[in-house]
Amino acid sequence: MKQQYKFWNARHPYPIASHTLPVHLRQIWIERETEMLPDYSETKRLFGRFFQAYARQKARAISPFAAAQMRYLHEGRGMKIMRADESESNTETQQFSSTMELKFDDIPDLTFEKAIAKYDEMVLDMVRKQTGFALERLSEDIPQSHNVDAKGKKLDAEILLEMFEKIHMEFYPDGRPHELHVIGGLFNSERLNAVEEEFQNNPELQKRRKELMERKKEEWRAREADRKLVG
Amino acid sequence: MLERLIENWLDSAGERSYQRCFCQMLAGQGFRIVHNTEHTPLEFGKDVIAVSPGGNLVGYQLKGHPGGTLKPRDFDQIRGQLEQLATLALAIPEFAGKVLDECYLVTNGEIDEAVYHQIQLLNASLVQRGHAPEKIKTITRGTLLGWAQSLGLSLWPSEMEDFGNLVMLLNYRGDEMFPAQVLDPLLRHTLRFPNDVKTPELSRRVTSAAVMTAIALHSFSRRKNHFAEITAWTMFISYAIAAYEKNGVDYSKHCKEAILAARDGIYDLLGQLCEEASEHGTLVEGDPFSEFAFYRPRVLLISALMSIYWMWSEADTWRRPHHKSLVERIIPERLPQKWLWGEGAIPNFLTFIWYRKKTTASANHNAMIAAVLAALLRNKTGGEGEPLASPYYDAEEVVQHQYCNTLGCPDPFEGDGFEGHSYFSESLMMCLVRANMKQACQELWPDFTRLSHERIVPDQAWQFGLYRTGDAAANETQIYPSTVQWEELQEICRDHSASDVPDALKADPVFLLLFLNIFPFRASFSAMRLLHKEFDRTASL
After folding, report:
1. A208 and A161, same structural domain?
2. Least confident segment among B230-244, B282-296, B468-482
3. Are residues A135 and A193 in the same domain?
4. Rounded Cα distance, B355 and B306, in Å
5. Mean pLDDT lowest for which of A57-61, A227-231, B398-402?
6. Residue A3 resides in a domain
7. What is the pLDDT averaged over residues B207-217?
8. HSE (side-chain half, CA atoms, 13 Å) at A43
């Protein structure tokens, strides 16, 4: 059974969505008491709206958590998750900021493309900060029993099997596993291809993976069958 | 600048729109309003009757002469009403058979000298008939402006931002949804939520907030946008209660009159909505070609509002008895197809169902709840259509999202997602559990456990009444165990303590129901358990 790798499992019971807050931009305007020349403010407002939307969409597109469902918190300082096993976790919201600098000297040569490039720099910085924070919170929230220590090694079939062993896997009703979402340097596409090759060249590893996935599917079936209101 | 703003408001306000403000100003001066009617056939010239702080029974006949003068020809038309006001005994139970001690002709304009002379003559004839001298007095524009400034404006926030918000409210066309997010900071600042406020000052501030609400509603009152007016007065009440609860003061001892006057105003607005909906015979508004997007949400909304009006009147009394049959005709037996535009529609739906349960016994009501929960669970677990929006979005925003490309507008849902979690599945499940529909609950249970159940819990109960709590709340997510005993679920559903709801709101379930219909994001599982207990008497738990 071939596994498709993307990013983190978005349906994981340890949601990270609340950390990946939308990007809000606050711009500093050049204020004057009087208008020496027209500001073309109506059209600038339209550009402003475009840049805001662009930055949000770009942030979403390049975020390693793009596949995770995003939630907007309309109020409240954070999230409290109360799980079925009666464990709880609290997450406070965190504000990130990034500075975008545009020098007066740059303006005569400024083009639309260059303005976009400035936004790209800022968005990249914001996404980097958000990702770091989200990973930190995930590490704190995920129980030790769900962790696998690669011990400085590169990703290989054994690490992957150990990982599969520990994670909670979900399946579609037709038996296909949900896509797994992976993130971090361990999971670059080169290593993932190499691991797949390792499986293909080793029937024993293939057999172990197949058996493990069958077991995971059985566990999932048992969990699903367990969704009962009894008595 | 603010003085000028009040003058502009008074000089363009009709009699109906300044009456509510007038009552609030009386309440702010220590009067107890015992009768406040907006043009019922039985008023006999008495728009407002109040008991003064000195114990006198005072009647007011309100007339609207915005920017004008009451001329002798106008006076000829109201002389009879004034005479009735001064001489007829009251039919109000508490004061039955009593005659008013003082009477006032109130106008937001000026009064012509010749009219003053005629009032003197009328007073003289009343003296001859045994009434006190100077029985009919007048209140004109100058007095009203003075009251508005001393009771209202003097305590308004003076920040430029607040002034801008007030001007913004006055610049609305008046046919929109009421912008609660604009009134919110004005009320917060007037009631000084960040500070501790002593009781006498708080009472003055509540009057000031009421005057501000009346003025902020000017554009909406002019367009007779009853729902907008109901929304704003509902906010005023919930914020006033919040301010009292926050400062540890029992509102019923200190600002009961202001809240009751606003509550009466809301009741009257529901009555006016009832009359207009009956007269029009259709719920279509404005451009009919765009109604494909709004008609169904409007039918649901009016059904919920009329259900509240019906339950309110049944619990108190029908002040206009003929409205009962009108309301029963307006509320449909069945809701239109595809009424479920978002989770924000569910309080409307449950209100409608609770009304139906009170008027018609049928097993179909619970079956409808089960069908709605099944549809919601299918939708939220990825089975059917785009996931329904959270209750933070209203019907208009949902339509803007659906047609944002066509309309060329920003997508209100950008940055938000709704799959896999629900704000109302728990409340709907609770209705079924309390109705002892065990089999339906068992069928729905697997999908129910696949969802995260959301609610916002304010740190302190008084914050419940605010449009937004800011940081002072937690977004709680409940994930249920896969297997639960029926008795255990019954136990969860049995609780109706609603610890996140202020006591003053718990004591007024009809108002709480209205509040949650207007602000569905406050309809927490806890609040809905309380309301269900109150309004669905067919439940077994």
Report:
1. yes
2. B282-296
3. no
4. 9
5. A57-61
6. no
7. 94
8. 3
Last residue in a domain, options B259, B281, B303: B281
Distance CA B130, CA B456 (A): 63
Q: What residues of chain B lie within 8 A of the CB of A81, using their CB?
A: 452, 476-477, 479
**Using alpha carbons only, what angle is made at residue B134 by residues B129 and B135, rounded to the nearest 5 degrees?**
65
A86 and A199: one domain?
Answer: no
| Domain count for chain B | 3
ipTM computed for the complex: 0.86
- B262 and B372 fall within a common domain: no
* Those residues with Cβ within 8 angstroms of residue B215's Cβ, 6 or more apart along the chain or in another chain: B5, B6, B9, B21, B148, B152, B166, B170
Are residue A80 and residue A133 in the same domain, yes or no?
Answer: yes
Q: Which residue of B has its CA nearest to A71?
A: B416
The model's confidence at residue B534, banded by pLDDT at 50, 70 and 90, is: very high
The boundaries of the domain holding residue B471 are 285-535
Q: Name the pairing type of β-strands B421-422 and B452-458.
A: parallel
> Three-state DSSP class for A229?
strand
CA angle B465, B471, B474 (to 5 degrees): 80
* B84-134 per-position pLDDT tens digit: 888 988 888 888 889 999 999 999 999 999 999 999 999 999 999 888 888
Q: Which chain B residues contact residue A72 at CB under 8 A?
A: 415-416
To the nearest 10°, report the CA torsion of B162, B167, B171, B172: 20
Q: How high is the pLDDT of residue B348?
A: 98
Query: Is the confidence at residue B177, as pLDDT, over 80?
Result: yes
Nearest Cα to Cα of residue B86 among B35, B53, B129 = B129
Residues B167 and B273 in one domain: yes
The pLDDT value recorded for residue A198 is: 94
Report how far residue B282's alpha carbon sits from residue B397's, in angstroms, rounded to the nearest whole number. Answer: 24
Among B123, B155, B187, the domain-final residue is: B155
Same domain, A202 and A158: yes
Please give the residue of chain B at the shortest CA–CA distance from A87.
Answer: B479
Nearest chain A residue to B487 by CA distance is A231
String of DSSP letters for B46-73 = -SEEEE-TTS-EEEEEEE--TTSEE-HH
Using an 8 Å CB-CB cutoff, list chain B residues near A228.
442, 445-446, 482-484
Using DSSP's 3-state secondary structure scheme, residue B519 falls into coil
Residue B409 lies in a domain: yes
Segment B271-315, tens digit of pLDDT: 999 999 999 888 888 888 899 999 999 999 999 999 999 999 999
Domains identified in chain A, total number: 2
Residue A230 lies in a domain: no
Same domain, yes or no: B229 and B244: yes
- Do B274 and B289 belong to one domain? no
Tell me if B416 and A70 make a contact (CB, 8 A cut-off): yes
Rounded-to-integer distance, Cα B175 and Cα B223, Å: 6
Range of the domain at A120: 15-27+39-142
* B422 within a domain of the structure (yes/no): yes
What is the spatial distance between Cα A134 and Cα B263, in angstroms, rounded to a whole number?
Answer: 47
